[in-house]
Amino acid sequence: MTLFEGRDLTCVRGERQVFTGLGFTVPQGGALILHGPNGSGKSSLLRLMAGLLDPAEGSLVWDARPVSGDPEAHRARLHYLGHLDAVKPVLSAAENLTFWASAQGGGPGDGQMGGPGAGVAAALERIGLTGLSDVPARMLSAGQRRRLAIARLFLARRGLWLLDEPTVGLDEDSIGRLQAGLADHRQEGGRVVVATHTAIDLPGAERLDLMAFQPPSDAGLEPW
Amino acid sequence: MVGAALSLAGRDLRLALRQRSDAGTVVLFFVLIAALFPLAIGPAPDVLLRIAPGVIWVTALLAVLLSLERLFLADFEDGSLELLALAPTPLSLLVLAKCLAHWLTTGLPVVLAAPVIALLYGLGADAFLPLIGAMLLGTPSLSLIGAIGAALTLGARRGGVLVPLLVLPLYVPVLILGALAVDAALAGRPATPHLLLLGALLLAALPLAPLAAAAALRQAVE
User: How many domains does chain B have?
Assistant: First the structure.
Protein backbone atom coordinates (compact mmCIF):
# COMPACT_ATOMS: atom_id res chain seq x y z
CA MET A 1 0.00 0.00 0.00
CA THR A 2 1.47 3.34 -1.04
CA LEU A 3 1.80 6.12 1.47
CA PHE A 4 2.13 9.87 1.03
CA GLU A 5 4.32 11.06 3.86
CA GLY A 6 5.94 14.19 5.15
CA ARG A 7 8.98 13.75 7.34
CA ASP A 8 10.25 16.35 9.76
CA LEU A 9 9.15 19.27 7.57
CA THR A 10 10.18 22.83 8.27
CA CYS A 11 8.67 25.69 6.30
CA VAL A 12 10.18 29.16 6.14
CA ARG A 13 8.32 32.06 4.54
CA GLY A 14 10.26 35.27 4.27
CA GLU A 15 12.43 35.25 7.37
CA ARG A 16 9.88 33.54 9.57
CA GLN A 17 9.62 29.87 10.44
CA VAL A 18 6.00 28.88 9.91
CA PHE A 19 6.21 25.37 11.33
CA THR A 20 8.95 22.94 12.17
CA GLY A 21 9.33 19.21 12.77
CA LEU A 22 6.02 18.47 11.08
CA GLY A 23 5.24 14.93 9.95
CA PHE A 24 2.16 13.37 8.42
CA THR A 25 1.02 10.20 6.67
CA VAL A 26 -1.83 9.82 4.21
CA PRO A 27 -2.58 6.23 3.16
CA GLN A 28 -4.43 5.25 0.02
CA GLY A 29 -8.05 6.34 0.37
CA GLY A 30 -7.11 8.38 3.41
CA ALA A 31 -8.00 11.91 4.36
CA LEU A 32 -6.15 14.48 6.41
CA ILE A 33 -7.74 17.62 7.80
CA LEU A 34 -5.38 20.47 8.58
CA HIS A 35 -6.41 22.31 11.67
CA GLY A 36 -5.19 25.51 13.23
CA PRO A 37 -5.86 29.23 13.51
CA ASN A 38 -5.19 31.72 10.73
CA GLY A 39 -1.52 32.02 9.96
CA SER A 40 -0.58 28.68 11.49
CA GLY A 41 0.72 27.44 8.13
CA LYS A 42 -2.13 25.38 6.66
CA SER A 43 -1.85 26.99 3.24
CA SER A 44 1.93 26.85 3.35
CA LEU A 45 1.79 23.14 4.12
CA LEU A 46 -0.57 22.55 1.20
CA ARG A 47 1.70 24.54 -1.15
CA LEU A 48 4.61 22.55 0.13
CA MET A 49 2.75 19.29 -0.53
CA ALA A 50 1.94 20.51 -4.04
CA GLY A 51 5.58 21.32 -4.72
CA LEU A 52 4.94 25.04 -5.23
CA LEU A 53 7.15 25.63 -2.22
CA ASP A 54 10.28 23.75 -1.19
CA PRO A 55 10.64 22.67 2.43
CA ALA A 56 13.53 24.31 4.25
CA GLU A 57 14.15 21.00 5.97
CA GLY A 58 12.66 17.54 5.80
CA SER A 59 11.23 15.70 2.85
CA LEU A 60 8.04 14.57 1.18
CA VAL A 61 7.86 10.91 0.35
CA TRP A 62 5.50 9.14 -2.02
CA ASP A 63 5.57 5.35 -2.04
CA ALA A 64 8.96 5.29 -0.29
CA ARG A 65 10.51 7.59 -2.93
CA PRO A 66 11.32 11.24 -2.28
CA VAL A 67 9.05 13.59 -4.20
CA SER A 68 11.94 15.96 -4.91
CA GLY A 69 13.56 13.25 -7.04
CA ASP A 70 10.82 13.48 -9.66
CA PRO A 71 8.76 16.66 -9.24
CA GLU A 72 7.07 16.22 -12.61
CA ALA A 73 5.63 12.84 -11.66
CA HIS A 74 4.37 14.39 -8.43
CA ARG A 75 2.68 17.25 -10.28
CA ALA A 76 0.97 14.74 -12.55
CA ARG A 77 -0.69 12.97 -9.64
CA LEU A 78 -2.17 15.89 -7.76
CA HIS A 79 -4.97 18.41 -7.93
CA TYR A 80 -4.42 21.67 -6.09
CA LEU A 81 -7.28 23.97 -5.18
CA GLY A 82 -5.91 27.20 -3.74
CA HIS A 83 -7.59 30.33 -2.40
CA LEU A 84 -7.88 31.73 -5.90
CA ASP A 85 -10.37 30.26 -8.31
CA ALA A 86 -8.35 30.65 -11.55
CA VAL A 87 -11.52 31.49 -13.42
CA LYS A 88 -11.35 33.80 -16.46
CA PRO A 89 -14.31 36.21 -16.31
CA VAL A 90 -14.73 36.61 -20.07
CA LEU A 91 -14.85 32.86 -20.76
CA SER A 92 -17.98 30.84 -20.14
CA ALA A 93 -18.03 28.23 -17.38
CA ALA A 94 -17.68 25.43 -19.93
CA GLU A 95 -14.85 27.22 -21.76
CA ASN A 96 -12.96 27.69 -18.49
CA LEU A 97 -13.23 24.01 -17.73
CA THR A 98 -12.42 22.88 -21.27
CA PHE A 99 -9.18 24.82 -21.08
CA TRP A 100 -8.17 23.29 -17.75
CA ALA A 101 -9.12 19.84 -18.99
CA SER A 102 -6.53 20.05 -21.75
CA ALA A 103 -3.97 22.04 -19.74
CA GLN A 104 -4.00 19.48 -16.95
CA GLY A 105 -3.56 16.68 -19.43
CA GLY A 106 -5.77 13.68 -19.75
CA GLY A 107 -7.95 15.46 -22.31
CA PRO A 108 -11.49 16.70 -21.90
CA GLY A 109 -12.94 13.18 -22.12
CA ASP A 110 -10.56 11.53 -19.67
CA GLY A 111 -12.11 8.69 -17.78
CA GLN A 112 -15.52 9.50 -19.18
CA MET A 113 -17.73 8.02 -21.83
CA GLY A 114 -18.81 10.05 -24.82
CA GLY A 115 -15.60 11.64 -26.05
CA PRO A 116 -14.18 15.14 -25.58
CA GLY A 117 -16.48 17.59 -23.89
CA ALA A 118 -18.31 14.88 -21.98
CA GLY A 119 -15.82 15.23 -19.11
CA VAL A 120 -16.53 18.95 -18.86
CA ALA A 121 -20.30 18.40 -18.97
CA ALA A 122 -20.05 15.67 -16.34
CA ALA A 123 -17.90 17.86 -14.08
CA LEU A 124 -20.39 20.73 -14.34
CA GLU A 125 -23.20 18.30 -13.61
CA ARG A 126 -21.48 16.94 -10.52
CA ILE A 127 -21.06 20.39 -8.99
CA GLY A 128 -24.52 21.54 -10.07
CA LEU A 129 -23.57 24.17 -12.68
CA THR A 130 -25.11 22.48 -15.74
CA GLY A 131 -27.59 25.24 -16.42
CA LEU A 132 -24.86 27.87 -16.29
CA SER A 133 -22.33 26.25 -18.61
CA ASP A 134 -22.65 28.90 -21.34
CA VAL A 135 -22.80 31.88 -18.99
CA PRO A 136 -19.68 34.08 -18.91
CA ALA A 137 -17.92 33.53 -15.61
CA ARG A 138 -18.09 37.24 -14.76
CA MET A 139 -21.86 36.78 -14.32
CA LEU A 140 -21.36 34.03 -11.74
CA SER A 141 -21.55 34.67 -8.02
CA ALA A 142 -18.52 34.11 -5.79
CA GLY A 143 -19.92 30.77 -4.63
CA GLN A 144 -20.59 29.68 -8.21
CA ARG A 145 -17.04 30.56 -9.20
CA ARG A 146 -15.78 28.50 -6.29
CA ARG A 147 -17.90 25.62 -7.57
CA LEU A 148 -16.39 26.08 -11.01
CA ALA A 149 -12.93 25.84 -9.44
CA ILE A 150 -13.99 22.67 -7.62
CA ALA A 151 -15.34 21.21 -10.87
CA ARG A 152 -11.71 21.09 -12.09
CA LEU A 153 -11.11 18.30 -9.60
CA PHE A 154 -13.56 16.13 -11.51
CA LEU A 155 -11.93 16.68 -14.92
CA ALA A 156 -8.95 14.40 -14.62
CA ARG A 157 -8.37 11.52 -12.26
CA ARG A 158 -5.54 12.32 -9.86
CA GLY A 159 -4.47 10.39 -6.79
CA LEU A 160 -3.99 13.34 -4.43
CA TRP A 161 -6.32 16.27 -3.82
CA LEU A 162 -4.93 19.28 -1.94
CA LEU A 163 -7.79 21.57 -1.01
CA ASP A 164 -7.31 24.96 0.63
CA GLU A 165 -10.57 26.15 2.21
CA PRO A 166 -12.68 24.47 -0.47
CA THR A 167 -16.01 25.34 1.15
CA VAL A 168 -15.59 29.13 1.26
CA GLY A 169 -18.72 30.72 -0.15
CA LEU A 170 -20.44 27.41 -0.86
CA ASP A 171 -24.10 26.78 -0.02
CA GLU A 172 -25.24 23.59 1.71
CA ASP A 173 -26.18 21.83 -1.51
CA SER A 174 -22.73 22.50 -2.98
CA ILE A 175 -20.95 21.33 0.16
CA GLY A 176 -22.96 18.12 -0.16
CA ARG A 177 -21.85 17.75 -3.77
CA LEU A 178 -18.23 18.36 -2.79
CA GLN A 179 -18.50 15.75 -0.03
CA ALA A 180 -19.99 13.25 -2.48
CA GLY A 181 -17.09 13.95 -4.83
CA LEU A 182 -14.61 13.49 -2.00
CA ALA A 183 -16.25 10.18 -1.02
CA ASP A 184 -16.08 8.91 -4.63
CA HIS A 185 -12.47 10.01 -4.89
CA ARG A 186 -11.51 8.12 -1.73
CA GLN A 187 -13.52 5.10 -2.81
CA GLU A 188 -11.27 4.89 -5.85
CA GLY A 189 -8.22 4.99 -3.60
CA GLY A 190 -7.58 8.74 -3.82
CA ARG A 191 -6.09 10.76 -0.99
CA VAL A 192 -7.36 14.11 0.29
CA VAL A 193 -5.69 16.81 2.34
CA VAL A 194 -8.04 19.63 3.34
CA ALA A 195 -7.45 22.84 5.20
CA THR A 196 -10.76 24.11 6.46
CA HIS A 197 -12.46 25.93 9.29
CA THR A 198 -15.95 24.66 8.50
CA ALA A 199 -17.11 21.19 9.43
CA ILE A 200 -16.67 18.90 6.49
CA ASP A 201 -17.82 15.31 6.50
CA LEU A 202 -14.81 13.08 5.86
CA PRO A 203 -15.35 9.71 7.56
CA GLY A 204 -12.23 8.33 9.18
CA ALA A 205 -10.19 11.45 8.46
CA GLU A 206 -7.15 12.15 10.55
CA ARG A 207 -6.65 15.60 11.99
CA LEU A 208 -3.37 17.42 12.01
CA ASP A 209 -3.15 20.32 14.42
CA LEU A 210 -0.57 22.77 13.15
CA MET A 211 -0.32 24.49 16.52
CA ALA A 212 1.66 21.44 17.68
CA PHE A 213 4.46 22.28 15.25
CA GLN A 214 4.87 25.99 15.83
CA PRO A 215 8.50 26.99 16.22
CA PRO A 216 9.44 27.62 19.84
CA SER A 217 10.40 30.94 21.44
CA ASP A 218 9.87 34.40 19.98
CA ALA A 219 7.65 33.46 17.03
CA GLY A 220 4.61 33.44 19.32
CA LEU A 221 5.02 37.13 19.97
CA GLU A 222 4.55 38.08 16.35
CA PRO A 223 1.04 39.28 15.59
CA TRP A 224 0.95 37.48 12.23
CA MET B 1 1.95 18.03 -23.84
CA VAL B 2 1.95 20.06 -27.06
CA GLY B 3 -1.84 19.89 -26.93
CA ALA B 4 -1.83 21.59 -23.53
CA ALA B 5 0.49 24.33 -24.81
CA LEU B 6 -1.65 24.89 -27.89
CA SER B 7 -4.82 25.10 -25.83
CA LEU B 8 -3.12 27.71 -23.62
CA ALA B 9 -2.20 29.74 -26.70
CA GLY B 10 -5.77 29.28 -27.94
CA ARG B 11 -7.19 30.46 -24.64
CA ASP B 12 -4.96 33.56 -24.63
CA LEU B 13 -6.02 34.39 -28.19
CA ARG B 14 -9.64 33.98 -27.24
CA LEU B 15 -9.16 36.21 -24.19
CA ALA B 16 -7.45 38.83 -26.38
CA LEU B 17 -10.28 38.71 -28.92
CA ARG B 18 -12.93 39.13 -26.24
CA GLN B 19 -11.05 42.00 -24.58
CA ARG B 20 -10.29 43.68 -27.88
CA SER B 21 -9.14 46.92 -26.27
CA ASP B 22 -5.91 45.35 -24.97
CA ALA B 23 -4.55 44.19 -28.32
CA GLY B 24 -5.97 47.23 -30.09
CA THR B 25 -4.11 49.64 -27.82
CA VAL B 26 -0.74 48.33 -28.98
CA VAL B 27 -1.38 48.81 -32.69
CA LEU B 28 -3.08 52.13 -32.12
CA PHE B 29 -0.09 53.32 -30.09
CA PHE B 30 2.29 52.21 -32.82
CA VAL B 31 0.38 53.91 -35.64
CA LEU B 32 -0.33 57.12 -33.73
CA ILE B 33 3.19 57.71 -32.44
CA ALA B 34 4.77 56.86 -35.79
CA ALA B 35 2.31 59.20 -37.49
CA LEU B 36 3.18 62.06 -35.12
CA PHE B 37 6.82 62.32 -36.19
CA PRO B 38 6.14 63.60 -39.75
CA LEU B 39 3.75 66.16 -38.28
CA ALA B 40 6.34 67.41 -35.80
CA ILE B 41 9.39 67.27 -38.05
CA GLY B 42 7.83 68.51 -41.26
CA PRO B 43 7.16 66.87 -44.58
CA ALA B 44 10.70 67.07 -46.10
CA PRO B 45 10.96 63.66 -47.84
CA ASP B 46 14.72 63.23 -47.42
CA VAL B 47 14.55 63.83 -43.65
CA LEU B 48 11.59 61.48 -43.24
CA LEU B 49 13.32 58.78 -45.25
CA ARG B 50 16.44 59.18 -43.14
CA ILE B 51 14.63 58.74 -39.80
CA ALA B 52 12.04 56.21 -40.96
CA PRO B 53 13.86 52.97 -40.03
CA GLY B 54 14.76 54.20 -36.56
CA VAL B 55 11.36 55.70 -35.81
CA ILE B 56 9.46 52.63 -36.96
CA TRP B 57 11.61 50.30 -34.89
CA VAL B 58 11.65 52.42 -31.74
CA THR B 59 7.90 52.84 -31.92
CA ALA B 60 7.28 49.14 -32.50
CA LEU B 61 9.57 48.32 -29.59
CA LEU B 62 7.76 50.70 -27.25
CA ALA B 63 4.40 49.39 -28.37
CA VAL B 64 5.42 45.82 -27.51
CA LEU B 65 6.91 47.01 -24.23
CA LEU B 66 3.58 48.59 -23.36
CA SER B 67 1.86 45.21 -23.49
CA LEU B 68 4.47 43.20 -21.59
CA GLU B 69 3.33 43.88 -18.05
CA ARG B 70 0.05 42.13 -18.68
CA LEU B 71 1.68 39.02 -20.16
CA PHE B 72 1.56 37.00 -16.93
CA LEU B 73 -0.13 39.45 -14.57
CA ALA B 74 -3.76 38.30 -15.02
CA ASP B 75 -2.79 34.64 -14.63
CA PHE B 76 -0.71 35.51 -11.58
CA GLU B 77 -3.49 37.44 -9.91
CA ASP B 78 -6.32 34.98 -10.51
CA GLY B 79 -4.36 31.87 -9.51
CA SER B 80 -4.10 30.38 -13.00
CA LEU B 81 -0.33 30.65 -12.90
CA GLU B 82 -0.09 28.35 -9.87
CA LEU B 83 -2.11 25.75 -11.69
CA LEU B 84 -0.05 26.13 -14.85
CA ALA B 85 3.09 25.66 -12.75
CA LEU B 86 1.54 22.45 -11.41
CA ALA B 87 0.44 21.18 -14.82
CA PRO B 88 2.17 18.06 -16.15
CA THR B 89 3.36 20.03 -19.19
CA PRO B 90 6.78 21.71 -18.72
CA LEU B 91 6.28 25.33 -17.70
CA SER B 92 8.77 26.53 -20.32
CA LEU B 93 6.60 25.05 -23.06
CA LEU B 94 3.58 26.86 -21.62
CA VAL B 95 5.59 30.10 -21.54
CA LEU B 96 6.44 29.55 -25.20
CA ALA B 97 2.73 29.16 -25.92
CA LYS B 98 1.96 32.40 -24.09
CA CYS B 99 4.72 34.16 -26.06
CA LEU B 100 3.21 32.86 -29.28
CA ALA B 101 -0.20 34.21 -28.32
CA HIS B 102 1.41 37.49 -27.23
CA TRP B 103 3.19 37.86 -30.57
CA LEU B 104 0.05 37.03 -32.54
CA THR B 105 -1.88 39.73 -30.67
CA THR B 106 0.80 42.45 -30.49
CA GLY B 107 3.82 41.81 -32.74
CA LEU B 108 1.92 40.56 -35.77
CA PRO B 109 -0.63 43.43 -35.78
CA VAL B 110 2.28 45.88 -35.57
CA VAL B 111 3.97 44.18 -38.55
CA LEU B 112 0.68 44.35 -40.45
CA ALA B 113 0.33 48.04 -39.64
CA ALA B 114 3.91 48.79 -40.71
CA PRO B 115 3.04 49.21 -44.44
CA VAL B 116 0.79 52.13 -43.54
CA ILE B 117 3.64 53.78 -41.67
CA ALA B 118 6.08 52.96 -44.49
CA LEU B 119 3.80 54.83 -46.92
CA LEU B 120 3.64 57.77 -44.56
CA TYR B 121 7.44 58.06 -44.60
CA GLY B 122 7.69 57.49 -48.32
CA LEU B 123 9.65 54.24 -48.12
CA GLY B 124 10.08 52.79 -51.58
CA ALA B 125 9.39 49.28 -52.74
CA ASP B 126 13.06 48.32 -52.36
CA ALA B 127 13.05 49.08 -48.61
CA PHE B 128 9.58 47.75 -48.06
CA LEU B 129 10.31 44.02 -48.09
CA PRO B 130 13.40 44.27 -45.85
CA LEU B 131 11.30 46.24 -43.35
CA ILE B 132 8.56 43.61 -43.21
CA GLY B 133 11.12 40.80 -43.13
CA ALA B 134 13.10 42.41 -40.32
CA MET B 135 9.93 43.01 -38.32
CA LEU B 136 8.71 39.45 -38.86
CA LEU B 137 12.04 38.16 -37.57
CA GLY B 138 12.52 40.76 -34.86
CA THR B 139 9.15 41.13 -33.15
CA PRO B 140 8.93 37.48 -31.97
CA SER B 141 12.27 38.04 -30.22
CA LEU B 142 10.74 41.08 -28.52
CA SER B 143 7.90 38.93 -27.14
CA LEU B 144 10.27 36.18 -26.01
CA ILE B 145 12.84 38.44 -24.34
CA GLY B 146 10.05 40.52 -22.86
CA ALA B 147 8.59 37.41 -21.21
CA ILE B 148 11.72 37.14 -19.06
CA GLY B 149 11.27 40.70 -17.82
CA ALA B 150 7.55 40.24 -17.27
CA ALA B 151 8.13 37.03 -15.30
CA LEU B 152 10.90 38.52 -13.17
CA THR B 153 8.84 41.51 -12.10
CA LEU B 154 5.72 39.54 -11.12
CA GLY B 155 4.77 40.26 -7.57
CA ALA B 156 7.12 43.22 -7.38
CA ARG B 157 5.58 46.54 -6.53
CA ARG B 158 5.66 48.92 -9.47
CA GLY B 159 6.61 46.07 -11.77
CA GLY B 160 5.47 48.14 -14.70
CA VAL B 161 8.41 50.49 -14.21
CA LEU B 162 10.90 47.68 -13.76
CA VAL B 163 10.04 45.83 -16.97
CA PRO B 164 11.43 48.50 -19.33
CA LEU B 165 14.58 48.82 -17.22
CA LEU B 166 15.20 45.09 -17.40
CA VAL B 167 14.14 44.50 -20.95
CA LEU B 168 15.30 47.54 -22.95
CA PRO B 169 19.03 46.69 -22.80
CA LEU B 170 18.22 43.23 -24.14
CA TYR B 171 16.14 44.78 -26.92
CA VAL B 172 19.03 46.87 -28.21
CA PRO B 173 20.49 44.22 -30.59
CA VAL B 174 17.07 43.70 -32.19
CA LEU B 175 16.61 47.44 -32.52
CA ILE B 176 20.03 48.02 -34.10
CA LEU B 177 19.84 45.11 -36.53
CA GLY B 178 16.23 45.88 -37.46
CA ALA B 179 16.99 49.50 -38.26
CA LEU B 180 20.22 48.59 -40.05
CA ALA B 181 18.39 46.17 -42.33
CA VAL B 182 16.10 48.94 -43.57
CA ASP B 183 18.96 51.45 -43.74
CA ALA B 184 20.97 49.05 -45.87
CA ALA B 185 18.08 48.58 -48.26
CA LEU B 186 17.60 52.35 -48.52
CA ALA B 187 21.28 52.76 -49.34
CA GLY B 188 21.07 50.07 -52.00
CA ARG B 189 23.09 47.52 -50.05
CA PRO B 190 21.83 43.99 -49.33
CA ALA B 191 19.80 43.64 -46.13
CA THR B 192 20.39 39.90 -45.93
CA PRO B 193 23.23 39.92 -43.35
CA HIS B 194 21.13 41.90 -40.88
CA LEU B 195 18.13 39.69 -41.49
CA LEU B 196 20.26 36.60 -40.91
CA LEU B 197 21.51 38.00 -37.61
CA LEU B 198 17.95 38.84 -36.57
CA GLY B 199 17.03 35.26 -37.38
CA ALA B 200 19.95 34.03 -35.29
CA LEU B 201 18.77 36.14 -32.35
CA LEU B 202 15.31 34.64 -32.71
CA LEU B 203 16.69 31.12 -32.85
CA ALA B 204 18.65 31.75 -29.64
CA ALA B 205 15.69 33.36 -27.88
CA LEU B 206 13.24 30.60 -28.83
CA PRO B 207 14.64 27.95 -26.48
CA LEU B 208 16.45 30.15 -23.94
CA ALA B 209 13.90 32.84 -23.10
CA PRO B 210 11.10 30.38 -22.13
CA LEU B 211 13.51 28.50 -19.86
CA ALA B 212 14.56 31.70 -18.09
CA ALA B 213 11.00 32.99 -17.84
CA ALA B 214 9.75 29.64 -16.49
CA ALA B 215 12.40 29.70 -13.77
CA ALA B 216 11.34 33.23 -12.83
CA LEU B 217 7.68 32.20 -12.77
CA ARG B 218 8.43 29.35 -10.37
CA GLN B 219 9.94 31.92 -8.03
CA ALA B 220 6.88 34.12 -8.41
CA VAL B 221 4.36 31.41 -7.44
CA GLU B 222 6.42 30.11 -4.52
Answer: 1
